[in-house]
Design brief:
The complex is a heterodimer of chains A (478) and B (486). With 478 residues, chain A is α+β, with helices and mostly antiparallel strands. Helix content of chain A is 41%, strand content 20%. Chain B is α/β, with parallel strands linked by helices. In chain B, α7 packs antiparallel against α15 (461-474). The chains are: A alpha+beta (478), B alpha/beta (486).
Amino acid sequence: MEWETVIGLEIHAQLATRSKIFSGASTAYGAEPNTQACAVDLGLPGVLPVLNKGAVKMAVKLGLATGCTVAPRSVFARKNYFYPDLPKGYQISQYELPIVHDGELHIELEDGTTKRIGVTRAHLEEDAGKSLHEGFEGVTGIDLNRAGTPLLEIVSEPDIRSSEEAVAYMKKLHSLVRYLGICDGNMQEGSFRCDANVSVRPRGSTEFGTRAEIKNVNSFRFVQQAIDHEVERQIDLIESGGEVVQETRLFDAVKGETRSMRTKEEANDYRYFPDPDLLPLEVDDALVDEARSELPELPDAKKQRFVEQYGLSAYDASVLTASRELADYFEAVADAAGGEGKLAANWVMGELSGALNKAGLDITESPVTPAILGGMLQRITDETISGKIAKQVFEAMWNGEGDADTVIEAHGLKQVTDTGAIEAMIDEVIAANPDQVAQYKGGKDKLLGFFVGQVMKASRGKANPGQVNDLLKKKLDG
Amino acid sequence: MSETSKTVAELAAGLKAGEYSSEELTRDRLARIRGAGAELNAFVTVTDEQALAAARAADQRRQAGGAGPLTGVPMAHKDIFCTRGVRTSCGSRMLDNFEAPYDAHVVERFNDAGLVCLGKTNMDEFAMGSSNETSFYGPVKNPWDTAAVPGGSSGGSAAAVAAGLVPAATGTDTGGSIRQPAALCGITGLKPTYGRVSRYGMIAFASSLDQGGPMARTAEDCALLLEGMAGFDARDSTSVESPVPRYSEALNGDLTGLKVGLPKEYFGEGLDGDVARVIDEAIAEYRKLGVEFREISLANTELAVPAYYVIAPAECSSNLSRFDGVRFGYRCDAPQDLEDLYKRSRGEGFGPEVKRRIMVGTYALSAGYFDAYYLKAQKMRRLIKDDFMSAFDEVDLILGPTSPTVAFNIGERADDPVKMYLSDIYTIAVNLAGLPGISVPAGFSAGRPVGLQLIGNYFDEGRLLNAAHRYQQVTDWHTRAPEAFA
């Protein structure tokens, strides 16, 4: 039987507010355990939550950017369960009435087509603390620094049909939250993590199969692996006569497999009810307008503009708009290069990306600034250097030898365009290779390339390749 | 000064006139708490040292010319209000060792005003009770008859004021916990509009119902104290941003033409005959003051107790989850694992009434029961509120008994939760609607005090206090003191 995979993702994006969602404690990552937990975060008796308005505006921005409806009134509820890293014994989260709902996100597939993935809802909630098992003998440590950190849980419709689509969706959302400046997207620190609801069904069926929820996957690669493994497991199970049970599973990154955490029967009854300590959240038009006015150019719009303004291919435009930082870098290079968008795109996606990858650096950490790279591209355009020599110039610039003009000057890389000088080099090459000249004249046209190579070598790459070509032909054929 | 029946207003005047210092007054009342008052068990913690330091500071402030109207007046806080540096037990073994690193909003305000806190008063465990018998620290006795309960949950505060150990104390009222003990102890107690007084630092029982308020001898004192307690606090999202009137300056308004409703449901079956007689006499007094009475109906009154005993336990089951033995409070000895830690810490730390309500509330919120209990109760709550709103279209205030009976004996209802819950039948609806209510001493039945309840519209505390004060000008029930403590 042929199987179809059905996936829905729940993404938890940690909102980039300075303080927590219901208290004034800092959200900075990596502090000493329990140094960023105030009375509210510790769940001490008598203290009360007060909603952070910054988190609300961020949620509204995500809603606007995904075409969601912003709810004029939403409600915080309590999700009740006992766990040592949950200080109050309940998590404050939006349940029945989320702040934004019913939007969409368009992802690009391998074949170049785009697909719409529905966004069911996004709701505000507080994060729990962390249990620390390492470094303790016979006891568990609790770090409540993360308790109360604002999260936006973004829930997709079950519109995703493969692990590749899941990764594309996750990457798209990752890029979006960073464009919006509402989440730093740091996946190692858990700022952007994913729960995947996975089920399979016979292709053509319209009913959903029983789903398993894979919890807390925190890298694109792991999401792909976890889903692939889970799909395989479910198909094997069904095909061997078994049944998928509704359960929560954990992804073991070391073994590359999922394992059961708890079944539906073991699941908590969360006893949700509206939190009486918080009034219903009202979002008025003024706040929506304010959030809208602060929205940056979003990835899809930027991509379209890159195609139109710089004449880039859709593929190049989408690579360059994958992150706001990369897009900004590219535009600065194109600007410094006098608007040569295509050339800028080739260099940013080619030489620069390669060097950054090799060095393990992010675009924001590039030792070559956009102005310096753009300046070098101008020297290509005005034929001061050839594209080939430019690679040498780039390497020097990467190593901190200064801008293009400085490097060209210091290394004497200026292109030779003086016809007399080139002719002199051609004469020497012809004189030194009488056999090849004879063969060429005998009809072996392909040898022209050999002569061009020899002349370029003699000029140490600096001769203008076009001129060399023309002059050689004239001499050999004449 | 030795007249223990002196009111806040009288003591404030004495301090202002220099008849005695705050330190002298504080020493006197502390001695009384340790002496004659000790048998009442009204205090969980007496803070002699802090009180004397605060009194001396108040005296210095007065000398420096910076005294406010209440500077130097002694008082006590119900042990549900968090006090920095002094244990806040909430009447529970669970918090027997708990010291909050912050002051409640109300505590902060009274400290700033220079009031001198003598200690923390006894209460039903986590404010769950109507008799003060559920306290981990033992029952409080009623100063009028030590065989009787003082009411609850603010029973320690009520007994302390009635016995003249302090002229005033704070209380909290979730279903009647200020008004019912005020009635049973013969003092005046005001439950303000929900949102009038910040709940910050007040340990939660049922967050949508809890409200702090003053307990004192007179309406005038309650007015003075409420001026100090009320007002917006950004730390409580349910605190209301609306200016606080000068209640104490509007006490003498003429009552002629005031329209007061008598809900027929508050005078029916279950009301003790003697209590009914006392209320009738009070109505007659009010008529003399020009008040016009009319019968009204609060048709859904009978829904109040059942709705309350779903909503309050539901909220408490969640509010009390934080007491898990992990970070503060009681922790069982040598827990074997996490589940054992939870089960024994909570099993040993909470008393039976608290456990009963947590279980009821957990059940009411459970999958499959939520609609039938919690949602239904919320609908009933809406009906109850609508009844009051229609009534206030016709009348300015509502009058009735505070409690169906006078104080019952210790142990008498301890084994019958339903009978106990009915003690609050006239007060609970007021919390469900979020309205202000006041209990005023109105007479006696067999030597035990009877309380009269006045209910007002939202933020109409001024009118309530005015009506209570005018009644107290023509009656002397509020000046009576139990013989043993006179």
